[in-house]
Automatic annotation (TrEMBL):
It comes from the Eukaryota. This is tRNA pseudouridine(55) synthase. Belongs to the pseudouridine synthase TruB family. Pfam families: TruB_N. One of its GO terms (molecular function) is tRNA pseudouridine(55) synthase activity. Its EC number is 5.4.99.25. It is an enzyme of class 5 (isomerase). Residues 293-305 have a biased composition (Acidic residues).
Length: 425
């Protein structure tokens, strides 16, 4: 009875008896159909949701990582990209998830070079023998990197008076030497520092990525044409230095980051070069002895015949292949050290003595610390080379917050992105 009364209240004007029961049954059927329709819609939505591809990125933006010694900045970018690519693939994400609505355009340009699955870039190169803060852009964050190329930075650099290399750091060849013993105390260095603070003119180093007539300077320097390299006129550029502090005690953060020990580095390089020279001489002598024993003029695969052509079985191609291999060897610089064995300053040698000293520099974008060290030495009537470098700050990112190599995992990279995004809001 209560159910019948309830039906009459819900449906005004219905009579008792058969008519009312018919109305109630109609309403129940309608309700059932509605419920079924709703259930079907929800199920379809759930199915659609479950079949949506996972996102390519779990977070996008900027973060700071710690670049180890001996790694190039591009080494770091490639390594981080590899981690994120493997993570995306493990989650079932693919490149198609970035462009689901533009497949025609993809097909149209499919013959062009395939783009990277994951976009990663850096906001300012650190040389292999430098360590510290390297700002990376992930995904949409790559569009924000230009401001970090131009933004404020802070460095700790170690310097050594008395010699200058062509690269202005430890990796180069000695090109100048000069006495420095007229500089009796670090106060003499401090006295000339005000000349290098503010907006000043600076000549970038020859080994840099600056373009002259469409060619990068380091390409000219390494091209083998010494006359062309010497003829290059590098224009001065205006830079801004906000502050320089001179000292002889290295900060703990710089030592932990990794800073090259200049004197030990040069000693080991010299020993390696002497060993390599001796080995090459021994190999040449052995080859000459073997040739004398076998007789000169033996025809070997790949040599030219009497007509000056390679043998019919591909000797010419063999010669070209060997030539290409030799070119690669000549153009690629051997990496003598890795992050584990590179000579670096440890906790037992934190205090420097002349001819070594250190400078802490706060500057704007485009400043070359190597050139700054060179110019400070010229002002002191001597020469100098930057032996070590640590970037301690780039924009809002500081060394203490940079993600170290042991923490380079997809989870921690994405977490660092989220934290940085939150801080920069």
């Amino acid at each position: 009875m209560k159910s019948a009364q309830s039906t009459r209240i819900v449906v005004p004007g219905s009579s008792s008896g058969g008519g009312g029961g018919s109305t109630a049954r109609s309403m129940m059927a309608t309700s059932s159909n509605s419920t079924t329709a709703t259930s079907t819609t929800s199920s379809a939505a759930a199915t659609t949701s479950s079949t949506s591809p996972p996102p390519l990125y779990l977070a996008e933006g900027l973060l700071a990582v710690h670049k180890p010694l001996t790694w190039t900045s591009n080494d770091v970018v490639s390594y981080i990209r590899g981690i994120l690519v493997r993570d995306a693939k493990s989650r079932g994400a693919s490149e198609d998830t970035t462009d689901n609505n533009n497949k025609k355009k993809k097909n149209k340009w499919q013959s062009r070079k395939k783009k990277q699955l994951i976009k990663v870039g850096h906001g300012g190169t650190l040389d292999p023998l430098a360590s510290g803060v390297l700002v990376l852009g992930i995904g949409k964050g790559t569009n924000q990197l230009q401001s970090y190329l131009e933004g404020d930075k802070q460095y700790i650099a170690t310097c050594e008076l008395g010699y200058e290399t062509d690269t202005l750091d430890c990796e180069g060849k000695l090109v100048k030497s000069a006495p420095w013993d007229h500089i009796q105390d670090i106060s003499a260095v401090e006295a000339i520092i005000p000349k290098f603070v503010g907006k000043i003119q600076q000549v970038p180093p020859m080994y840099s990525a600056i373009r002259i007539d469409g060619q990068r300077l380091y390409e000219i320097a390494r091209g083998g044409d010494s006359a062309k390299a010497e003829a290059v006129e590098i224009p001065k550029r205006e830079i801004e230095v906000y502050g320089i502090q001179v000292g002889t005690t290295l900060e703990e953060s710089a030592i932990q980051s990794g800073i090259v020990d200049g004197p030990r580095y040069r000693e080991q390089v010299k020993a390696h070069e002497e060993s390599a020279t001796a080995a090459a001489a021994a190999a040449a002598a052995a080859a000459t002895a073997a040739a004398d024993e076998n007789g000169d003029g033996d025809y070997e695969e790949g040599d030219a015949d009497e007509n000056g052509k390679g043998d019919a079985e591909g000797g010419g191609k063999g010669k070209k292949r060997r030539r290409r291999d030799n070119d690669k060897k000549n153009n690629s610089k051997e990496r003598m050290f890795n992050e584990e064995n590179v000579p670096s300053i440890d906790h037992t040698s934190t205090t420097l003595q002349l001819p070594q000293f250190k400078i802490n520099v706060q500057c704007g974008g485009g400043t070359y610390i190597r050139s700054l060290v060179r110019d400070i030495a010229y002002e002191l009537n001597t020469v100098a080379t930057m032996t070590g470098l640590v970037r301690t700050k780039q924009g809002p990112f500081v060394l203490e917050d940079a993600l170290t190599k042991e923490n380079w995992t997809a989870d921690k990279i994405y977490e660092a992105l989220r934290v940085a995004n939150e801080k920069m809001k």
